Amino acid sequence: MTTREGGSYKDDREKQKDVRMSNIVAARAVADCIRTSLGPKGMDKMINSPSGDVVITNDGATILSQLEVKHPAAKMLVELSKAQDIEAGDGTTTVCVLAGALLGAVSQLMARGIHPMSIAESFTHASGKAMEILNSLAIPLDLSDRESLLKSAVTALNSKVVSQYAGLLAPIAVDAVLSVIDPKTATNVNLKDIKVIKKLGGTIDDTEMIRGLVFNQHASHSAGGPTRVQGAKIGLIQFCLSAPKTYMENNVIISDYTQMDRVLREERSHILNMCKKIQKTGCNVLLIQKSILRDAVNDLSLHFLAKMKILVVKDIERDDIEFINKTMGCIPIASIDSFTADKLGKADLVEEVGTSESGKIVKVTGIQHDSKTVSIIVRGSNKLVLDEAQRSLHDALCVIRSIVKKKSLIAGGGAPEIEISMRLAEYAKTLTGVESYCIRAYAEAFEIIPYTLAENAGLHPIAIVTELRNKHAQGEKTAGINVKKGAITNILEENVLQPLLVDTSAVTLATETVVMLLKIDDIVITR
């Protein structure tokens, strides 16, 4: 009886070990998949979906969100990159590579018979120490220092497919964020206040920021309506300028021509009365929300509005209503009876602009409402470049948002990771027992970042990391890998800076994920 119990206990131990190893192997496979995308010399991935769509990117969160991952532990790494994307917006590849290296350290420690809970506690302790080290390396920053903000935005863009346009996109990102916040008091940025519109045609050089509104739709041209209005009074309507319909299914039986003429006459006078009410308020630009129940406008109403010299932009998406309201101060109007002059927004100029042979946009500039919103038009010669430019710009905006949240910068180029690695290894020597052993393994895992940076740049990783450790041992805390020169230099002089939040968030999230995976000893499948 005793042997059987002992045997089953041993089997349980073996099963737990197998489950943990399976989790570690699956999660590391995902981390290794995107490791080659790290850094300015990282490779890009081409993702082909079953529907035939192609995505070219080296953004960790985008790559992982497109992957079809079956293993639950591997899915945790996909969620990890999403969490980093939400928290900091940049460093999504770093966080996964770091988690993969920590899991490698875990498997070595477990092979030596150290209990998973001891490893988890030591890693959590080490993570707290790593935070202290990062904070000691941070360089405080004032939001009025535009130059430093530009440097960090350029650093974020340098690792993207569109890195050659970093000099153009970085100032746009910085100016856009500074336009929607009060630099003296801001602690966060609502990126919904920055509307990014993609427009095919032209090149990335044509990307511009507009202090106003841009509509992807063109103005209505039927019946020769205006396409340019100065001194605009803008109305935003959510009702339909077409013949009324009942909510229930109905049939109207017409027996002779006089009744038919009467129906047409009534429809015409109904629409004309609505258009006259709109004109009476002084409105000369009309934005019409898209309707799914029936036509928001018909040819007759467009004809009347064109005669009244009212510029019409139709098919405004429901999601854009709040942004338009915030930007122009015009209140959405739900019925014709409540259409009054005080609900209109005012702007100096509304005009339709051609962007390419077929593409047109409507620009609203000189808005008199004091709004903290901006619009950015991203241009690109094809869909792949356009999508990647938009993703890169989003990352640059997130980097500036991270600086607003935590007003500190830190050196890039693998400098903070090597400093953490060395300082934690020294700290581990002051401890005794299993904890010292675990923290040393945690410290060594951080070398994966400079090692991968060097490897992806085609340098000799072992020689580079050894030289980097040597420089840091001599007290050069900002020595990092300069991938352009292929050597170790003072990375601050090269203007390679990143927000402190990106690094602190990556370390915290990677450690939390690894500790969570460590605590799993069984996978139960439910039906």
Helix percent band: 40-55%
Give the mean pLDDT.
88
DSSP strand tally: 16
Q: How many helical stretches?
A: 16
Strand content: 15-25%
Structural class: alpha+beta
Distance between the termini: 34 Å
What do you see in this structure?
With 527 residues, this protein is of the alpha+beta class. Strands 6-11-10-7-8-9 form a 6-stranded mixed beta sheet, with helices on both faces. α8 links the parallel β7 and β8. α3 packs antiparallel against α16. The longest helix has 34 residues. It starts with a helix and ends in a 9-residue tail after the last helix.
SSE topology:
Blueprint: H1 2-35, E1 45-48, E2 54-57, H2 60-66, H3 72-87, H4 92-111, H5 116-137, E3 139-140, H6 146-158, H7 166-180, E4 194-200, E5 208-210, E6 212-215, E7 228-237, H8 257-280, E8 285-289, H9 299-307, E9 311-316, H10 321-328, E10 345-354, E11 360-367, E12 374-380, H11 383-405, E13 408-411, H12 415-429, H13 433-445, H14 448-456, H15 461-473, E14 479-482, E15 487-490, E16 497-499, H16 500-518
Parallel strand pairs: 4-12, 7-8, 8-9
Antiparallel strand pairs: 1-2, 3-13, 5-12, 6-11, 7-10, 10-11, 13-16, 14-15
Give a concise summary.
The chain has 527 residues and is an alpha+beta fold. It is built from 16 helices and 16 strands. The strands form five sheets. The protein has a six-stranded mixed beta sheet with strand order 6-11-10-7-8-9, with helices on both faces. It has a three-stranded antiparallel beta sheet with strand order 3-13-16. It has a three-stranded mixed beta sheet with strand order 4-12-5.
